[in-house]
Amino acid sequence: MVIFEVTDLDYIIQDLFYDFSTKKWILDRNEYILELIFYSGIKKVLVLFAAGILISLTFFYKTSFVKKYKKGLLVVMLSAIFIPLTVGVLKKITNTPCPKNIERYNGNYPNVKVFDAYPKIFKQECKIRCWPAGHASGGFALLSLYFLFKNLKNKKYALLFGLLVGWSMGIYKMLIGDHFMSHTLVTMFLAWIIILSIDKVVNLILIKENETKVNAPSHLF
Length: 221
Description:
Shape: elongated
Strand content: under 5%
Structural class: mainly alpha
Strand order of the largest sheet: 1-2
Number of domains: 1
């Protein structure tokens, strides 16, 4: 965050995706196939995936599969909820413009970063919501799949898959002018911190749950 705040690295990267002569972004946000794959389609898939895990934990908790992977399923489900929620809250309070909004890219907002104050002469009608990257948060929530698998090789594949989905969603939004690189990077790191925190909490809950079962009278089971 400090590197992007004190340098013009965001602008240098974003300039690659903008044609200053035509004042257009490298990708058209109205391109149906790309929008379906990298925006509306993937969002629906992620929602269905999280809903499927919730249903499994609620109605099929006695099955051997759910019992075996209970901890991992809980981490994935909670990550799918809390990561987009946290990013959404930050977007509401940071009031940071998107690339497409700022004057550098033919927008109406001054070229301000997340820790910058708006010029006094600038009259803002309503808050704007662009930092951090919200769309990519759902993809980076899949980094939690790391904790679903038991084998280290599969854990690495899961981590790679989460990065691939998250960055494909994030880069798409960069190519249509909705986010800077720093927006997506912050979302990725924030997602991983939240996932690690959730894993610790779930571990503590399951340990206490097991201790309760061990110490409880056998007739209760």
